[in-house]
Amino acid sequence: MTRYVALLRGINVGGNKKVPMAQLRNLMEGLGYTDVATLLQSGNAVFTTKEKNPAKVAKQLETAIAKEFGFDVAVIIRTRDELAAVIQANPLSGAEDAPSKFLVTFLSDVPEKKRLQEIDPKAYLPEEFRVVGREIYARFPNGIGNSKLATVLGGPRLGVTPTARNWSTVTKLLELADR
């Protein structure tokens, strides 16, 4: 059995794509997932399943959500161990000191180097980011709300599907996965 973390992109934001977490838990249990738990109202879930292929799990969830709620939602999947490795691999300081000003953007795949090279880090200072595999770590000393970098990292520019979580949510998801 594998313990997974599902990160749903763009639900319950600004009144669009409403997915009640109780309904999501029921849907996931209906797919045969066990030990299902959700965190917050923004599409974070942990669960256990026999399926070993994360891509199959993501596709199964995306299909079930579209059928149940009537709209498409991208689902990014990480195993519990991958999430722990994401936390360990953090290359930037300050996440623990200001978790609401620190994001991890989880990507559906590793972006092409060319796309990353098109983003000039100096243009966004004092904000900073580092790419490690399928994650982008970013620090926003002045907050995320008006950040142009957050918009770039969370949009289509990278050619992969992104979904971001603040550091507090990332660490709470690991705690939830470990219960």
UniProtKB/TrEMBL annotation:
This is DUF1697 domain-containing protein. Pfam families: DUF1697 (PF08002). Coiled coil: none annotated. It comes from Hyalangium minutum. SUPFAM superfamilies: SP0830-like (SSF160379). InterPro entries: DUF1697.
